Amino acid sequence: MKHLAKEHTNAHIEPKKGFKIHLLVFVLTIPALWLLWFFTDRTYLWPVWQTAAWGTGLLFHYMGVFIFKKNFHQ
């Protein structure tokens, strides 16, 4: 019987599919954060930071997948 703890398996996902998942989570989460802000204390515009930071990450993810293409399959 093989020792399962020594086996290394990596789940590989296609880069385009990974970006689509990232975009979907962004599109579903950011409006929820803005709604949370809207229905709570609106004295500080805190969702701007999450939107800007995550949007920047999403932009770099897009650039890595569609502009600076790499072959990830060896």
- Total beta strands: 0
Low-confidence stretches: none
Residues in helices, as a percent range: 55-70%
Note the beta-strand portion. Answer: under 5%
Overall, the morphology is elongated
Mean pLDDT: 88
How far is the first residue's CA from the last residue's CA? Answer: 29 Å
Task: Outline the biggest β-sheet.
Answer: none
User: How many separate domains make up the residues?
Assistant: 1
What's the alpha carbon Rg, rounded to whole Å? 18 Å
Q: Which class of secondary structure composition applies to the elements?
A: mainly alpha
SS summary, helix count: 2
Could you walk me through the main structural features you see in this protein, from its secondary elements to its overall organization?
It is a single chain. This protein has 74 residues and is mainly α. The protein has one domain (12-67). It is built from two helices and no strands. α1 (15-39) runs antiparallel to α2. The longest helix is centred in the middle third of the chain and has 25 residues, at 15-39. The protein is elongated. The chain starts with 14 loop residues before the first helix and ends in a 7-residue tail after the last helix. The model has no long low-confidence stretch (mean pLDDT 88). The chain crosses the membrane at residues 21-39, 51-68.
